[in-house]
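Lab meeting, item 3. Inverse folding demo.
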């Protein structure tokens, strides 16, 4: 961000380049039927059960809570990746409307997959198409190469090109997806978001941005991406663990430094800034912070940096600890009610 143009306690709005707003209700969810022992287990026992349990009402309040938490952290733009296989149609509108109500920018995509059969993949493609054709800001989502047949990957790629947008896809997050580079090499383009890339070869041959999600990678025990080895522009995401991007920057720095003691905070700070190539509008948003100066070397060790106010598209949407458009207490209470509904459904699920 062009810090020289700003006051000492200001930045542009921060960008979360990979989020799952549907996961905001998942905190405190019931334990899975057995302890996951691999990344595949974590997907099957936690996230693929959660996404099957979601309905549009749960999604609405999950997205509002996630959007609220974003502006409370100075994040003004979210690039979301969504899946709710039992509530696909209209789901991207629910997320977009929830974010609009809170006042945060969002780029939506539905994660297409063959996990639920050909019909499931088709419905996912149709939701992306419906949303983009209606003028929604978004991309075409794909879950990951390893859960898609070649014709599904091709269809998603063509749909994205038809709408002049990129594909937002998890790539080589775990060893299950080692074939990703070979399967995507002929399809990927400069506007694709390649999320994770932990197990990508150095000479992967893909085009696009690498979205680095350091805390999620640690939490899933999939290994360190060392994203700067991959030769592509890098942006930072949370993979659904909130949208506090200064915190993700600090974690990115700590994990990088563990890997290389000569690394400096300027490198992960540049990853935050590259987010403006994906959502340029956020560069004009303004966050006024409660402490100064804004400096990567200070922020790498500052665990208590909070916004005083957040301005998005010229409008103050957060001021003195409260959102200006919505009632934070109401959102938290409604989200807690929906979380209880979700947990009850999960308890009764196979
Ligand atoms: Zn993800």
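The presenter then showed the designed sequence:
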């Amino acid at each position: 961000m062009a810090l020289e143009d700003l006051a000492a306690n200001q930045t542009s709005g921060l960008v979360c380049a990979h989020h799952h707003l549907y996961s905001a209700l998942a905190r405190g969810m019931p334990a899975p039927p057995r302890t996951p022992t691999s990344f595949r287990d974590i997907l099957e026992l936690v996230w693929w059960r959660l996404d099957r349990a979601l309905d549009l009402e749960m999604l609405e309040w999950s997205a509002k809570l996630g959007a609220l938490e974003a502006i409370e952290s100075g994040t003004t733009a979210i690039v979301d990746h969504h899946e709710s296989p039992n509530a696909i149609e209209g789901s991207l509108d629910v997320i977009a409307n929830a974010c609009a109500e809170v006042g945060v920018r969002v780029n939506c995509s539905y994660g297409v997959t063959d996990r639920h059969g050909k019909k499931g993949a088709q419905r996912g493609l149709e939701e992306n198409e419906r949303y983009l054709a209606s003028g929604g800001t978004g991309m075409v989502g794909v879950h990951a190469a390893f859960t898609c047949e070649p014709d599904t990957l091709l269809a998603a790629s063509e749909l994205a090109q038809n709408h002049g947008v990129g594909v937002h896809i998890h790539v080589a997050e775990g060893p299950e997806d080692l074939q990703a580079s070979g399967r995507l090499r002929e399809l990927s383009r400069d506007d694709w978001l390649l999320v994770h890339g932990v197990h990508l070869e150095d000479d992967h041959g893909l085009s696009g941005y690498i979205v680095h999600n350091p805390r999620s990678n640690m939490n899933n025990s999939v290994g360190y991406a060392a994203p700067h080895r991959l030769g592509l522009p890098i942006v930072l995401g949370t993979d659904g663990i909130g949208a506090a991007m200064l915190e993700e920057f600090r974690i990115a720095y700590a994990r990088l430094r563990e890997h290389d003691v000569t690394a400096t905070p300027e490198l992960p700070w540049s990853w935050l800034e590259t987010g403006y190539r994906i959502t340029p509008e956020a560069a004009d948003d303004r966050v006024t912070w409660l402490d100064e100066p804004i400096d990567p070397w200070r922020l790498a060790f500052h665990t208590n940096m909070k916004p005083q106010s957040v301005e998005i598209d010229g409008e103050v949407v957060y001021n003195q600890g409260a959102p200006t458009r919505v009632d934070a207490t109401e959102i938290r209470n409604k989200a807690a009610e929906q979380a209880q509904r979700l947990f009850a459904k999960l308890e009764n699920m196979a």
